[in-house]
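Why does residue order matter? Because the sequence determines the fold. Keep that principle in mind as you read this record.
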Amino acid sequence: MKNAFSYIASVFVSVILVFSVLAGTGAGIVKYCATEQQFKTISEKHDIDDKVRSELEKYFHERSSVTGIPEEVYMDAIDSEYIHGIIEQTIDNGFQRLRGGNASIETKNEKLEASIDAFFNDYADKTGYKKDDKFEKKLTATKNSAYSIIREYSDVYKFGALDSHGVITKLSKIYTRIDLIMITSASAVLILIIVLLLINMSAKAETVYWTGVSALIAGVIGTAPCAYLLATNYFSSFSIKQAQIYTSYTETMKLFTNTFMYASIGIAVLGLLLIIIYAVFRPKKTQAA
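Structure:
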């Protein structure tokens, strides 16, 4: 490192290498974590379907004073298995939208419709209410409203709301290019290492040193904020009223953060090993300089 030009050039390239490593790591984490299976696993692990059912029960109970329809009319026909299926469909649909497509969500529940039918018919029979077109429209509207609420509460990642606000469209531009970002970042890392090798042709061992320094710095930069977020339990401070949405988002953020932290620690360890290797095996001539 006695040559001023090679030293300054190596510093400059190493800085770019740090950001290339971070970009590649970030893209890899998104590729690994942001999948239907990961989101479904979180849903199953934390009993999100039961949380959705509890929130629906609370909603229909509160609405019963306005609609006159007891919560049991709905909840006796809505079990966790039914909710679980809709949650998985909303996740599949959300990722289809991220990929630029779409997928249907089937919420039909014959038991629920029969329960609503029975309540309306019993009410009409007891009060002498005429079962005309107005009656049928009200009956249909009640069923559609129930399905709409079930879909809304089961959309635990709020893909529908994100899509309606144009967020999915923006995220899709990044998500559909994750592989390209990974390949570009990996290629940039390889090219930058080659550039370091060319800069230090007279002392090739310096390439190991600068690569190690870049990896160590990238690892520390990636690890520090993640460790802080996890140590302070930052995600628990999210202000989200519905339990299923709160749990889904906080646990997903923890997944991303933990995975990025562990990857960063691995990169930092690799960098440290490269620096140690350089220190142990560098030529004596370089050491004397």
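The radius of gyration is 28 Å.
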